[in-house]
Amino acid sequence: MKASLTILFVVSFLGASAADDATKTEARIDDIVHQAFSKRYDAHSKADRDYRATVATTFQFADRIEVYLLDFSIGEDPTYQLKDDDEGFPIRPYSRGSFDEAKTKILKTSKLPAKEIPTWCAAVTKMVTSDKDGGGAFCHYPIHGLRIYAGTKLLFETSLCWACSNFYFTYTGESRWVPLTEDANDLKKRLHDFMPIPEAELKRFPGYKPKPK
Description:
alpha+beta, six-stranded antiparallel β-sheet, two-stranded antiparallel ribbon, 8 strands, globular
């Protein structure tokens, strides 16, 4: 009887030890895969930031900047749906190809004074090259749009959402969301000063609360 109990104890011990070893092995595997994912993510993030920084060097040739007030609902509000003769502003990450391009209504357009182009380009460069952490959401309510030109050449185009804290950047062949960081604060102030968001548009936004007087 004692021998049977001893054997049972040894078997149980060995079984528990084997299970413990298996758990440790799985944890080690998960850790290796996680490290690989983190390394890949960091490398991709750096490559994207380097790409944006390279594009930003072309801003030295800028001779025109256009600022837009956009319909943040992207046409979901029937009042703001695009008509056939409306240009529309592309929201490229939402597009599903050149024949199914997501666009939103342009409510207002203004051209920046030429003397302000260098400081605005510097503000945009600071935004697109930021290496700080940002908390951009996966939604997008475009309210400001921006285009930078050199002659007829479009150097940069984006829409910005201050609610979700993100903008889009177009890489070769694709457009993706980029989180806004504190490095976008200069551009944010310039946009709000140059193209204030009308109270009528703010009231349309979900969860709108008027500022206390």
